[in-house]
Amino acid sequence: MVIYWLQQARDSLHGIYKFYEATAGKKTADKIRMEIYQETRYLLIFPTIGSKEEGTRYRYIIKRHCKIFYTIRDNNIFIELVWDTRRNPEVLRQLLTDDTNQ
User: Fold this and answer.
1) CATH no. for residue 30?
2) What are 41-80's pLDDT values in tens digits?
3) pTM of this prediction exceeds 0.90
4) Could you list the residue range(s) of the whole structural domain that residue 17 is in?
5) Given phi > 0 = left and psi -120 to 50 = alpha, else beta, which region is 76?
6) Three-state SS string across the chain, please?
7) Which of 18, 19, 67, 94 gets the most CB atoms within 10 Å of its CB?
8) In terms of Cα–Cα distance, which of 9, 18, 74 is closest to 39?
């Protein structure tokens, strides 16, 4: 099994990084980014450990204030999105709904 970070996930993690860099400093932003990456490594051992996001094809794990959304396909793990849970949940719902209709 291999973990693949899709572009949307990389972009969303970068946005979270930039937020923390501006508000808490580079050292904190680096630490949070590393913690999120490390959290996904557990999926190699326990790929179904994440909860299912109701009404979608996604599973997620949580690290700090972030939900890490992923799917399992063809015996691989695809990190699809990293979402700061303090953001507007309607935006998340729209992102997940738009994606499942494609």
Assistant:
1) 3.30.2310.20
2) 999 999 999 999 988 999 999 998 999 999 999 999 999 9
3) no
4) 3-100
5) beta
6) CCEEECHHHHHHHHHHHHHHHHHHCHHHHHHHHHHHHHHHHHHHHCCCCCEECCCCCCEEEEECCEEEEEEEECCEEEEEEEEECCCCHHHHHHHHHHHHCC
7) 67
8) 9
